[in-house]
Design goal:
There is one protein chain. The protein is α/β, with parallel strands linked by helices. It is 43% helix and 15% strand. A six-stranded parallel β-sheet has the order 2-1-3-4-5-6. It has a six-stranded parallel β-sheet with strand order 9-8-7-10-11-12, sandwiched between helices. Helix 9 links the parallel strand 7 and strand 8. The two termini are 17 Å apart.
């Protein structure tokens, strides 16, 4: 079996979870004996059995052309922003989709909403996303599969090691508006709660990053930047808890790392968080509010937060994720053969 992976944003332009997910999946599938390649748009002789679109919606014209060429198409769209909308907004969005499809078909075809009903399988990395895809786009439930993110086996082992506890919470994220890093930093200052921020911006010249940097005092708002994997694991093990006030996520690998380290979680009270980790043992949700309101909840969380033994919620290895994904591929191919 040969799988071609397609992604629309070059890794050199935007680092983050999509890159980690794709690289990990390709590596582990190859280790399982499957043939994997990035899709080469310039190579008319490239062959394969499956095209897997990850992180974006498969363009409808591509799906039709792939089927004509004998490919099966699997799609993993990160529906983070959409799935975190409140119910009334989803209802309105569905109404607009139906009206647009009926009255402006030439225009809406370019949005590829029909891809949700045309691809051979849909894989989602958050449990809240399959119902949203079915509600908005009419995705077939039988073609929807939930397969979470994972971590490497040696990372899981490293994060479980004992370490003396220090006085801080940790937040691991790209410094960007949707992560609401500035809000969390402002709340930390008001509450007098030390938070160690790990991560880098998409650009050092980004005004949002400069605003965040102005808040760094290395007392309550501590910034270590982008650190090595070994150093990140050590800093996670020494933390009292993990905090992230993001507006939307699809699973979020940083939250999986925090869970594997046994850290209590302080997350935004939005669907991506409230519905994304149903088996979490210690988790607190906070509305995206003014810094003073967030600060009060943050202080309450900090006062009782301590690392504990075991995972906060179950975290699979990337090998297990690859095995589940391969099972979807095989199902699609076997269904075609019958």
């Amino acid at each position: 079996m040969k799988i071609l992976f397609s992604h629309d944003i070059p890794f050199h332009l935007a680092h983050g979870g999509s890159q980690t997910h794709i690289e990990s999946l390709m590596r582990e599938l190859a280790a399982l004996g499957e043939e994997v390649e990035p899709e080469r748009w310039w190579d008319e002789k490239q062959t394969g059995d499956i095209i897997h679109y990850i992180g974006r919606r498969a363009p409808l014209v591509n799906v039709h052309l792939a089927h004509q060429k004998g490919f099966k198409v699997v799609m993993t769209e990160f529906m983070d922003m959409t799935a975190s909308r409140p119910r009334h907004q989803l209802w309105l969005q569905r109404l607009l989709i139906r009206l647009g499809t009926r009255h402006l078909p030439a225009f809406t075809t370019r949005l590829s909403w029909e891809s949700f009903r045309t691809v051979d399988a849909l894989i989602f990395c958050s449990p809240i996303e399959p119902p949203v895809a079915q509600y908005l786009f009419g995705a077939d439930p039988a073609r929807c599969h939930f397969i979470s993110h994972g971590l490497e086996a040696d990372v899981l082992e490293a994060l479980a090691q004992p370490e003396p506890e220090e006085d801080y919470l940790v937040s691991v994220a790209t410094i960007a508006p949707r992560k609401r890093t500035v809000l969390l930093a402002e709340a930390a200052k008001i509450a007098g709660v030390p938070i160690l921020f790990l991560g880098k911006p998409y650009s050092e010249s980004d005004p949002y990053f400069q605003q965040f940097r102005s808040l760094v005092d290395q007392r309550f708002v501590r910034y270590a930047g982008f650190v090595s994997e070994v150093e990140k694991q050590r800093l996670l093990r020494r933390a009292r808890g993990f905090a992230l006030m993001s507006e939307f996520e699809t699973g979020c690998i940083a939250v999986y790392e925090a869970s594997a380290a046994g850290l209590p979680l302080f997350l935004s009270r939005l669907p991506w968080a409230t519905g994304g980790y149903p088996k979490a043992r210690q988790i607190q949700f906070c509305p995206l509010d003014k810094p003073a309101a967030v600060a009060a909840r943050l202080k309450q969380f900090y006062d009782s937060a301590h690392r504990f033994s075991g995972h906060n919620f179950p975290v699979p290895t990337w090998r297990q994720v690859a095995e589940q994904t391969r099972a979807v591929y095989r199902h699609v191919l076997n269904k075609a053969a019958t």
